[in-house]
Amino acid sequence: MTAPDTESLSKKGGHLYSVRMRAFINDHHLSGGEDLVSRNALGERVLALLEQGLTSSKNSESLPPSLNVRIEPVPETDIVPSVLLPVYCLESGSHEETLSFLRMVLDAGFPRLTVPGKILFGHFLDILGGSDQRLSGATFILPSGKKITPEQTGVRVSHFGIVPHLRQILLKEAATHPAGAGRRFIEALQIASKIMSHPVPEIEVCVSDNPEYTTGYIALKGFGYIRLPHIKLAGKAWGGRLIGLSSEIPASLQSELSVYLSRVPVLFVDRSPLFPSENAIALLERLKKG
Questions:
Q1: Same structural domain, 89 and 15
Q2: Same domain membership, residue 90 and residue 69
Q3: Are 119 and 143 part of one and the same domain?
């Protein structure tokens, strides 16, 4: 792991700024984004996030959205440096093919899982069917199969960022890589990487609630992030995030995990490889080898 570059941290204050944006119309969420940036980069990053909110594809009627921007200083001593997960991509031509791969991974494809894969897959099918749309964040699945909803509506993974030069490298690579989707890919990779940087989560399955964005992912501890095209059918405004835990932690430790995911600032200062896309058989072989 490399240290944050000198432009990432304020020389005078020894801090970064957490900047978070949310765009919405009435109670309908349109777009959100965030980063951890230096004072010098703050203005440019805020403008980029505002443009993201103003041009959300979920605003189908092109109505003027409301935008909230929150900026908070973060002391350097509070920042946890981390590394992005390796990236794999499933070759899939249909929703059915992707679901079949996900079922195989959860049934037997990743032998180190302690969370029951069949139960996790069932909860994921519930998400695809449109249940639990009251949730705005992630739910936990314990090894017993029990589903826990932190903070009543789920925990939102927040307070993360990426050093500027690394963002630019990933944007350039994503333009010609199966990961694709630029900004969305980089944000999803950061969320998955933050979740897996904590010792308790062992698996995450995620699908966007954007009707036009049909790609999701699965993240696995000790392996990486797998992009899943066609994970849902186009036009479905349903999504969600499930986090499988490796142990039956008590409520107090569940609360500590929620605080880590939602409040502890994690800055990604290095990355792992982006591998070429592979078919289901090749990816399952990789998973079985661990």
A1: no
A2: no
A3: yes
Helix (H, G, I), strand (E, B), or coil: what is residue 243? strand
Do 12 and 66 lie in a common domain? yes
What's the mean pLDDT in 105-128? 90
Tally of residues, the chain: 290
Residue 153 lies in a domain: yes
- Asked whether residue 267 is domain-assigned, the answer is yes
Residue 4: DSSP 8-state: P
Please give the tally of structural domains in the chain: 2
Query: Residues 40-66: pLDDT tens digits?
Result: 999 999 999 999 899 887 777 888 889
Q: What is the pLDDT of residues 80-99, one digit of tens each?
A: 999 999 999 999 999 999 99
Whether the Cβ atoms of residue 237 and residue 211 lie closer than 8 Å to each other:
yes
Rounded Cα distance, 102 and 110, in Å? 11
Q: Specify the pLDDT at position 210.
A: 84
Here the tokens at position 246 are: 């490796």
Structural domain including 253 reads 83-289
Query: Residue 199: exposed, middle, or buried by beta-carbon count in 10 A (0-12, 13-18, 19+)?
Result: exposed
Regarding whether 87 and 59 lie in a shared domain, the answer is no
Is residue 51 left, alpha or beta, with left meaning phi > 0 and alpha meaning psi from -120 to 50? alpha
Looking only at the bridges linking them, the beta strands covering 139-141 and 28-37 are: unpaired
Instruction: Yes or no: say if 268 and 193 are a contact pair by the CB < 8 Å rule.
Output: yes
CA angle 208, 183, 128 (to 5 degrees): 10
